[in-house]
Design a protein that fits this description.
mainly alpha, 65% helix
Length: 181
C-alpha cells in the first residue's frame, strides 16, 4: 500500500491538477506514479519540467532515452519503472526482446547503444562514477561528450522516479515486464 494518496485529477491539490492532466494525456491515462507525485505539486511539476526539457532539448532520440530509463530502472531494482519503461521502450520502437536485453545490459545487435547504456549503468550503480575505460568505449562507439552528458541527465531524471517509487511504495498499475530468467 502506498504511503501517500493516489490522486485523481478531481481530488488532486489544485496546484497539481494541470500537471497531472498533462501527464495523463501524455501517457494515455493517469498512472499511479503521477497520481502520487500530485500530492506534492512541486515534485510533479519538477518531474514534468525535467521530462519536457529533455524531450525537447536533448539530442538523444526517444529510443535511446527509453533504453537509458529502462537500464537505470533495472540497476535500481524499481519494479514500477521497469514496467513503465518497458512499455515506453516498446512504444519508441524497441522489441520486447530488446527490452529484456537492455535490462540485462547488452543489446547483441547494437554495440553503439550498449556502450552508452554501460555509461548509464555505471552512473546509476556507482553514484555517478564511471570508469575511464567505459567513457572511452562510449566515445569510440561514436557518442560525443555532449550526448554522454545528456545521457547523464536522463539517468538523473530516472533515478528521481525510481527513488520516488521506492520511497512511497507505488503499486504497479501497468503491464509487468517480461522476466529476465
Amino acid at each position: 500500500m502506498p504511503r501517500v494518496p493516489v490522486h485523481t485529477i478531481d481530488d488532486a491539490p489544485d496546484d497539481s491538477r494541470e500537471a497531472l492532466r498533462t501527464q495523463g494525456e501524455r501517457v494515455g491515462k493517469v498512472i499511479n506514479i503521477f497520481a502520487e507525485m500530485a500530492h506534492a505539486p512541486a515534485l510533479l511539476k519538477m518531474y514534468a519540467t525535467t521530462e519536457e526539457l529533455l524531450r525537447e532539448e536533448s539530442s538523444l532520440d526517444e529510443p535511446t532515452r527509453q533504453a537509458i530509463h529502462l537500464t537505470v530502472a533495472n540497476v535500481n531494482d524499481c519494479d514500477y519503472c521497469q514496467a513503465a519503461y518497458t512499455g515506453a521502450a516498446k512504444a519508441a520502437g524497441h522489441s520486447e526482446d530488446d527490452t529484456v536485453a537492455i535490462r540485462r545490459g547488452i543489446l547483441p545487435d547494437d554495440d553503439r547503444l550498449t556502450a552508452l547504456l554501460q555509461v548509464a549503468r555505471e552512473i546509476a550503480a556507482n553514484s555517478g562514477y564511471v570508469e575511464d575505460t567505459t567513457w572511452k568505449a562510449a566515445r569510440e562507439a561514436g557518442w560525443s561528450d555532449k550526448e554522454i552528458l545528456e545521457a547523464y541527465a536522463d539517468v538523473v531524471r530516472t533515478i528521481m522516479t525510481n527513488y520516488f517509487n521506492h520511497l512511497v511504495g507505488t503499486e504497479v498499475d501497468l503491464p509487468e515486464p517480461p522476466p529476465l530468467d
